[in-house]
From TrEMBL:
It comes from Herbiconiux aconitum. It holds the Pfam family H2O2_YaaD. This is Peroxide stress protein YaaA.
């Protein structure tokens, strides 16, 4: 089983690991693209005004330019610890047990606009690059879409739970040959109708991901995942369109 998470715009500073080592990252077939994109971003960061305009950053986020300029020399930490924000606060990776962290390292992937598909334990620096960043040609979609899809294709025998946003799905669609389910977090309104959540869907995704990681269960198929959810208080169901719904 793979659990695929989106990244977060916000990230922790620092890290106890050494400088970025592409050989230490999962999915080594992405190394060439990672190197090329890292060089592009670092070069662009030498012109702060240009980088801020392309990333649509205000003055309060000017420090992000320096993060991008020093990508190759900054300290690293595990990706699941690096990212912050609502989803990652709910996942709370730093508080996971050693056994749960080991499970996450094997079964959780994070889809980064800069590095492509990462393992949860991969050591990365802090950076700023969103899925809609305009870096010129090639675009992020051209850079990543086919390459990331091929990485998913290599897991076609596994259940894939896709917790990404639509913008990151576009940067690496999961092939039809891989049994995958896009998770949509919904709530029930006063009229009884189910509606998708926006901001608070991130908390639901993070909470579910943590529960799966803590249980350490490698679900063989979606039916087993739904049955576990019912027994553990996570209300999962399949929608007619094939999406997996999480009712909160």
């Amino acid at each position: 089983m793979l659990i695929v998470l989106p990244p977060s715009e916000t990230k922790r500073d620092g890290g106890s690991g050494g400088a970025l080592d592409f050989a230490a990252l999962s999915h080594p077939r992405l190394t060439a693209k990672r190197r090329a994109l890292t060089r592009r971003v670092s070069r662009l960061a030498r012109t702060p005004d240009e980088m801020m305009a392309r990333l649509k950053l205000g003055q309060k986020l000017a420090f992000e330019v320096e993060r991008n300029r020093t990508l190759s020399t900054a300290p690293t930490m595990a990706a699941m610890d690096r990212y912050t924000g609502v989803l990652y606060e709910a996942l709370d990776a730093p508080s996971l047990s050693p056994e749960a962290r080991a499970f996450a390292e094997s079964h959780v992937r994070i889809h980064s606009a800069l590095f492509g598909l990462l393992g949860a334990g991969d050591p990365i620096p802090a950076y700023r690059l969103s899925s809609n960043a305009r870096l010129g040609e090639p675009t992020l979609k051209v850079s990543w879409s086919s390459a990331v899809s091929k990485e998913f294709e290599a897991h076609r025998g596994e259940l894939v739970l896709d917790l990404r946003s639509e913008s990151y799905v576009a940067l690496g669609p999961i092939p039809p040959t891989t049994p995958s389910y896009f998770l949509r977090v919904v709530t029930t309104g006063e009229d009884g109708a189910q509606r998708a959540l926006n901001h608070f869907n991130k908390k639901g995704k993070g909470t579910l991901a943590r529960a799966i990681v803590e249980n350490g269960l490698d679900f063989a198929d979606v039916d087993a995942l739904i049955a576990w959810g019912r027994a553990s208080g996570h209300h999962l169901s399949l929608a007619p369109n094939g999406e997996l719904l999480l009712l909160v």
